[in-house]
Design brief:
Strand order of the largest sheet: 7-6-5-8-1-9-12-2-13
Helix content: 25-40%
Low-confidence stretches: 1-55, 189-200
Distance between the termini: 51 Å
Strand content: 5-15%
Number of strands: 15
Bound molecules: zinc ion
Radius of gyration: 22 Å
Length: 495
Amino acid sequence: MSPLVRAPRPSAPTHRCAGICAPSRSSKIRTVLVACLTVASVIGALAGCSGKEKTTKPTRAPLVIFALDGLEWRVMKPLLDAGKLPVMAGLMERGAYGYLSSMQPTYSAVIWTSIATGKVPEKHGIHHFVYEEAVNGKKAYRYYTSGHRRTKALWNILGDHGLVSHTIGWWMTYPAEPVNGTMVSQTNTTGVLHNPQVALWKGSLIKGVDGQVYPPDRQNRVMDLLAEVDANLDGVEKDLFGTPANPVDEFSQMMWDQTEWSFRADATYVRVARDLLEAQPDFDVLSLYIGGTDVAAHRFWRYAHPEQFTHPPNPKQIENFGRIIEDHYRYADRVMGEILQLVPGAAVIILSDHGMHAVNMDNEFKKDDPPIETTSAHHLDAPPGVIIAAGGPFTSAGSAWNAKHELDLTLLPRLGSVLDVLPTILAVKGIPIGEDMDGSPMRAILDFGKTGISEIRYVPTHDDAKWLAGQTARIRHGVDESERIEQLRSLGYIK
Ligand SMILES: [Zn+2]
């Protein structure tokens, strides 16, 4: 039997799902909407399936994936209503959009790996930021690296089918893997930080560390761009966030210091993406990760929503920092628009790994509190994230705008889960889905008439023993690992 022949879809294993999976009045509305959309899509699918011709070649139309950590509809709504996110609004206008269910544990390292593999952590092997190992008879924590992943990801599968992918800043990509295209890692170290009070979660690019870029001969160019961003960082931040109107208190300064590195990382990845597109404009899938949407919300939620807290910041602190989250969302919107201008006609997916909400509402938020107590928003209960898909094979069905042209969050449908993202991408690219994946294509966002594919195909798996053996050789202990382990300990994530 040919591996490309359609196979019956295996029943999906259960995964821990939270947020909008719980029944509620609004979820009923969403369920009805999803059902309507799905019926429309199935009709489209049936129409598409009626022809005898089968597509056997992958589809060569560019797809841009913007991976925005922690992007939250409730933050976006007032900005969309006020016309402050024009790029996202434009994509919503001509595309499909709604909630993307998240999962637990709601750690970005785990979820972004599930998004890239279509599999639960038990299968992909990344369970946390760190794992335990006996070193000289003593228990020690080690960072997960790309070599710990036990199954192929989007970029591996695309390459196997002759498609070119550029992956920039995605979680758990250090050391960079050999791909048909380019990979710029999110390097999981603290090389940029020297303050033990700083709570660092995400990696970034680090000067002087090998293996962060594939192909390796591109690493020097990427490091030059990092240096360029560093040299201009103050100016970029002033442009983005302005200058505080009032003297900055110690606590707020600490919040800013714990956030600034993520703007540096985002500015670098965006710069690298633009450079890459100018040098190598032909690609099949470009994936760009932006993390500041998550980090800014963790640190500055209380300044943007003081009414939710027993001990809100004072008016001068709010005047200084009340718009940091908004400013970063607007920054993300603007840079997505700039990148899309370089690839006119590309299909686009914007997605987040989870949403975000207030926490620690009764805390006093003192400078010497442990970092886990000074964050004013979090997502450990897996609030649903965002998906917007437009252009190419994506449908424009569905609208959650009311008569006043305001977004009605109760009308947003649940379009799928983080596990459904990879099967959806493979479906639109005409690549078979692995039967061992835990998600399914999000039919509600697909217009089968536009995909150019006549059926969704499956293979038992995309994995093979040779590839897996190569993975083990990529396991590497991160630079400055002990320093970062201490930070995780101080945040209460490990003991
Ligand atoms: Zn987070």
